[in-house]
Amino acid sequence: MYEIDTKLLKLEEEGTPIHVALIGAGQMGKDIVSQISEMKGMICDIVVDINTDIAVDAYKQAKTREEIVVTDLLEEAEAAIAAGKRVATTNYKLAVGAKPIQSVIDATGSPEMGARVTTECIFYKKHIVMMNVECDITVGPILRKMCEQAGIVYSLTAGDEPGSIIEVYRFARALGFEVVAAGKGKNNPLDLYANPGQEEWIAKAAARDMNPRMLVEFVDGSKTMIEMCAVSNATGLKVDIRGMHGPSCNVKDLSKVFSLKEQGGILETTGIVDYGIGDINPGVFVIVTTDNKRIIDGLVQRDMGEGPNYLLYRPYHLCSIETPITAAQAVLYGESTAHPMDHLTSECITIAKRDLKAGETLDAIGEYCYRASIEHAHAAKAGNMLPAGLAKGAVLKVDVPVDTVITYDMVELDNSSVLLQLRRMQDQLLA
C-alpha cells in the first residue's frame, strides 16, 4: 500500500480510474459509495440491490452528479458506463460481467449470495472484496484458492475488525514478536437470547438507522464470533475456549488480562483470538511478547509497560469507509488486506436460542432461532456441528432444546445451495 494515494492521483490525472461495482446498498454499502465519490482515481460504476430505489439512493446520498441509469441488461449497463453514467440494478451479474469493472465489493451479508458472487468473479476474473464475513468463515478457504488459480485477489476488507486486527497482527509478526492474543472490543451489550422482534432492539436499531436483525447479530454475540473466526482462519490463532472468554476489561488492562493464568491472566494457552467488553471499542488489539532482553528494555523505555506482555492497540476501525482501500490494493498491488489460509482453524457453530421444534425452518443469523459461537475446527468436525453459515433454510428433523448445538444430522439442508456445494468440496479437498 506504499504511495497508494499517489498512485490513485496518477490514475485520476491519466483518466484511467479503478472501476468498482458494489453489491448490497445497505448502511455499509451506502458508506462505500459515498467514500468512493470523495476519492481520486476510483469510480463506483454499478450499485446492486434487491430494490433499485435503494441503489439509486446510494448514489444520491453520495451527491452523484452523473446520470443514473436503471437497468438489468448487461449491454445497457456497459453502454452507460462507457458514456460516463452510473448504473443501478437488481441484477448482481451485471456487477461482475460488465467489462470495465475491476473490483467487486460484496456487502450483502448473505453467505449464499457471497458464494454465488465470488464464483461469478472467478469466471470473469474480477477481484472480490469480501465484506461478507459470514460467507468467508464458511467457504473462504476454497474460494480464496479458486480465486488464486484464476489470477484474482480474494480479500476481506480494510476497516472491518478482522481486516484491522490482521493488519496489526502482520506488523507484529513482521517484527518477530510472539503473538499472545488478538482481538477486538465489543460495542454492544451481550444478550445471547436477543431477537429482532424485541422492542428494545427495534428502538435501538431505528435510532442507529439499522435493520434490527443486523443489530441483534451483534447483540447476541454472533457477529463477534464470526469476525474472530475470520481472524483465526486467516492467522492460525486459535480459541482458548468455545465462545472465547470475552472478559469485562478496559484498554489499560488488556496486556494483563490476556496473559497466562500463571501470570495472573485468564488464558490456558497463548496464540488465541478473543474479545473484551469495556472501553476497547472501536479499537482492536494484538498482545505480543518477546524474550529478547534488549528489545524488552526498549519497550520499557518507550512506555510500553513492564511486560511480560505488551499491547499493540489500534483505537479505531472505520468499517466500510476504509473498504475502497482494499479494492484499490487488489488492482494496484495484487494483494489482499486479509484472507483465510487453505484450511479452517476455527468454525462458527450453530446454537439454539430457544426451544426449536421438528419441522421448523431455521432463519438467518441475528434472528429468532440460533446464534453463532466459535469452536476449534477439529472439535466441530468431530462433533458433526453445523456451521452457522449453512443454517439458514435448514429444516429441523428433531426437536432441539435451547442452548443445544445443532448438528448436521439434526437438519435437512438445501442441496441446490451453491454455498453448500462449495462447503462439501472444501471439506473433501482442503481437509
TrEMBL record:
* InterPro entries registered for this protein in UniProt: DRL_cat, NAD(P)-bd_dom_sf, SAF
Gene3D superfamilies from the entry? Answer: NAD(P)-binding Rossmann-like Domain
Provide the SAF domain boundaries. 347-412
Q: Which CDD domains does the record match to this protein? A: SAF_DH_OX_like
Q: Which Pfam families match?
A: DRL_cat, SAF
Superkingdom of the organism of origin: Bacteria
Q: What is this protein called?
A: Putative homoserine dehydrogenase-like protein
Q: Which organism is it from?
A: Muricomes intestini
